[in-house]
Automatic annotation (TrEMBL):
One of its GO terms (cellular component) is plasma membrane. InterPro entries: TRPM (IPR050927), TRPM_SLOG (IPR041491). One of its GO terms (molecular function) is ligand-gated calcium channel activity. It comes from the Eukaryota. This is TRPM SLOG domain-containing protein. Residues 111-289 form the TRPM SLOG domain.
Length: 297
């Protein structure tokens, strides 16, 4: 598909600037459509969607600490603690799926979130995004991938990055996709998204794709006893500083970046790990394919 030269040059400038900020890479998938934006509706009950989460039930001791499982939970948190089990930990053999009946809703910043199995089919994610959350189909997807590490930039570099993101966001219906955590370059993305939404609130969608087990204070999101799924969860991110950021990274848990509009919290049964594998790239490819007219059945 031929991309408008103005957009093409603009994206090249953005890519150059982001690479200079020591990101691993910037992945940009572009598709232009004529879809009208749908108005957002209240949080919908997801009981009709096969949304699950995972729990590690079979204890597999680490080599360096025999009392800690490879999932980073202690022995007594498992139902199967067979002492002589030497099998290598794997999601298919050491975890079980459970129906998610409560771990979804709306945060205090109005962002929608859901905890879901990392192996959830993309067709189900599609229904969640478009049928339940009513997100408009994007004309532009920008996936920013960086390490979960703190960073140090000059004021000038930060300003250039922010302005580049803002200018793109206000020109088209864009999806910004990040790890959704309040650390590293995503902090700047959050600032840019917030600034862009002040200028054009209907066009900006920022989706954080993170690991459920990497979210600090995730217990606040667990709603086992809640009856009203439309009630906002009182999760708030803490004020960030470099020392806290480094400690959070070492502990394997970070606060959410609260300027995002949606969160997909992937669950593979492990805790204090950031790796979401290839989920994000597969989702971007899936959505891009849909926008080209090849809708999966």
């Amino acid at each position: 598909m031929q991309i408008n030269r103005c957009y093409y040059n603009f994206l090249l400038q953005l890519k150059t600037k982001i690479l200079s900020l020591h990101l691993k890479r910037l992945a940009v998938s572009v598709t232009f459509t004529q879809h009208k934006r749908q108005p957002e509706i209240p949080v919908k009950d997801l009981k009709n969607l096969p949304i699950n989460y995972r729990v590690c039930y079979k204890f597999a001791p680490k080599e360096v600490d025999k009392d800690i499982c490879e999932c980073n939970r202690i022995r007594r948190d498992h139902t199967d603690i067979t002492a002589n089990d030497q099998s290598k930990w794997h999601i298919s053999t050491h975890t079980k799926q459970y129906k998610n009946t409560s771990d979804y809703g709306r945060l205090i910043n109005d962002a929608l979130y859901v905890r879901l199995d990392i192996e959830t089919k993309l067709e189900i994610i599609h229904k969640l995004l478009f049928n339940f959350w009513k997100i408009s189909k994007p004309t532009l997807i920008i996936s920013i991938i960086g390490n979960a590490t703190s960073y140090s930039l000059s004021d000038r570099s930060e300003s250039k990055f922010l302005n580049s993101i803002v200018n793109i966001c206000i020109k088209t219906n864009v999806w910004m996709i990040t790890n959704g955590l309040d650390i590293g370059i995503v902090q700047l993305v959050g600032q840019a998204v917030n600034k862009a939404r002040l200028k054009n609130p209907d066009k900006v969608v920022a989706i954080g794709i993170c690991k459920w087990g990497s979210i600090k204070d995730r217990e606040v999101l667990i709603k086992r006893e809640k009856q009203n799924t439309n009630k906002k969860d009182q999760y708030t991110s803490k004020t960030s500083d470099v020392n806290n950021d480094e400690n959070n990274i070492q502990n394997g848990a970070c606060d959410l970046e609260m300027k995002h509009t949606h969160y997909l919290m992937l669950d593979d049964g492990t805790y204090r790990t950031f790796d979401t594998k290839d989920f994000r790239s597969r989702l971007c490819k899936h959505i891009t394919t849909l926008e080209m007219g090849n809708t999966p059945r």
